[in-house]
């Protein structure tokens, strides 16, 4: 109960910190032209379709996707490798990159050097909008319906990319914060979909005492979720649904999937952070919870004999500065799992 009280009290300070940490200054690259109507693309099985395509530069495309699963149109950013063509005879391995809460599909290119890193490899990177959707098809008091974020990410986006952009079926998933939970959850709920999953600072034990309270409190007060019971239901009355979306509980399904997980544990600023005067002792409570549950997850995997590369460190805020460094650590491992040569 002491842990639960600490996490709930600490969550109150999250409003000042932000759900996914500090957003660095800088904007997305200026488009070369205004959005244009997309060519006649093949829709997904449920009718999801690319309705507009905007080319930002030689490698970067922003797509508008009309999604029945979400009941709205949302964006997807795509980085294509050098030599890519939508008319090519071949396909390319794909990394699906998920952002955290209170952020958008532009976050990976805005806040990391993923454009530079991926340019050295023959791989596509797909960065879909994730909203504050918790990477699940919402429970909605047992009625289902929209939003269905899991369906959007694992069915609609995959089908649209594979049918229209020469994306292959050799895939990896990576994410930060809630996107890290999404990466491991999707890999576990869809065995074989991803060869590799990399997760930085995510909640990896959703049903640990105290964690559901923290998660629902954050959803209710610091995001646009509204009623948090709509997401997975009650952690007591609908405990089966919570367990069905808990990476810790789903860990046996990850056998055969390459795994990298990381998190700080103290929530204090680390070597990559730049605290302002007086912020040296500011704690990011999200990182404390992520570190606690990630340690549980790693212990569970190792008890099951499932290989995992883990980087559990002390200090480091819940912030892109740390997450970019983690990406540099796992990127070569992920490329090796996808069979993509690393050339620097």
UniProtKB/TrEMBL annotation:
Q: Which SUPFAM superfamilies match?
A: alpha/beta-Hydrolases
InterPro entries associated with the record: AB_hydrolase_fold (IPR029058), Esterase-like (IPR000801), Mycobacterial_A85_antigen (IPR050583)
Keyword rRNA-binding part of the UniProt annotation: no
The GO terms describing molecular function are: acyltransferase activity, transferring groups other than amino-acyl groups
Keywords from UniProt, A to Z, are: Signal
Q: Where is the signal peptide?
A: 1-27
Q: Work out whether the entry's keyword set contains Oxidoreductase.
A: no
Q: Which Pfam families does the entry link to?
A: Esterase
Give the protein's recorded name.
Esterase family protein
Organism encoding this protein:
Actinomadura rubrobrunea
Q: According to the entry, what is the taxonomic lineage of the organism?
A: Bacteria, Bacillati, Actinomycetota, Actinomycetes, Streptosporangiales
């Amino acid at each position: 109960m002491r842990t639960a009280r600490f996490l709930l009290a600490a969550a109150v300070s999250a409003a000042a910190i932000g759900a996914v940490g500090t957003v660095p200054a800088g904007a997305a690259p200026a488009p070369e032209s205004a959005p244009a109507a997309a060519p006649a693309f093949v829709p997904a099985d449920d009718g999801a379709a690319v309705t507009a395509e905007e080319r930002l530069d030689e490698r970067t495309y922003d797509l508008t996707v009309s999604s029945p699963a979400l009941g709205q149109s949302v964006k997807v950013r795509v980085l294509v490798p050098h030599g890519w063509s939508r008319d090519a005879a071949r396909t390319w391995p794909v990394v699906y990159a998920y952002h955290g809460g209170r952020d958008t599909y532009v976050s990976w290119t805005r806040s990391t050097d993923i454009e530079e890193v991926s340019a050295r490899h023959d791989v596509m990177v797909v960065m879909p909008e994730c909203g504050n959707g918790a990477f699940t098809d919402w429970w909605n008091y047992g009625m289902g319906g929209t939003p269905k974020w899991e369906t959007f990410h694992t069915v609609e986006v995959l089908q649209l990319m594979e049918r229209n952009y020469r994306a292959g079926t050799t895939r990896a998933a990576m994410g930060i914060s809630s996107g890290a939970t999404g990466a491991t959850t999707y890999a576990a709920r869809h065995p074989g979909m991803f060869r590799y999953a990399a997760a930085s600072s995510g909640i990896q034990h959703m049903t640990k005492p105290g964690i559901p309270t923290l998660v629902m409190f954050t959803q209710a007060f610091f995001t646009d979720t509204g009623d948090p019971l709509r997401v997975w239901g009650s952690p007591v009355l609908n405990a089966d649904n919570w367990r069905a979306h808990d990476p810790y509980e789903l860990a046996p399904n990850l056998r055969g999937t390459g795994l990298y997980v990381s998190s700080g544990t103290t929530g204090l600023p680390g070597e990559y952070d730049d605290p302002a005067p007086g912020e040296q002792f500011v704690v990011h409570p999200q990182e404390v919870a992520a570190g606690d549950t990630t340690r549980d997850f790693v212990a569970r995997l190792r008890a099951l004999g499932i290989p995992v590369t883990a980087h559990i460190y002390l200090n480091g805020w819940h912030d892109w500065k740390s997450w970019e460094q983690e990406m540099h650590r796992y990127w070569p491992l992920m490329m090796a799992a996808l069979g993509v040569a690393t050339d620097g």
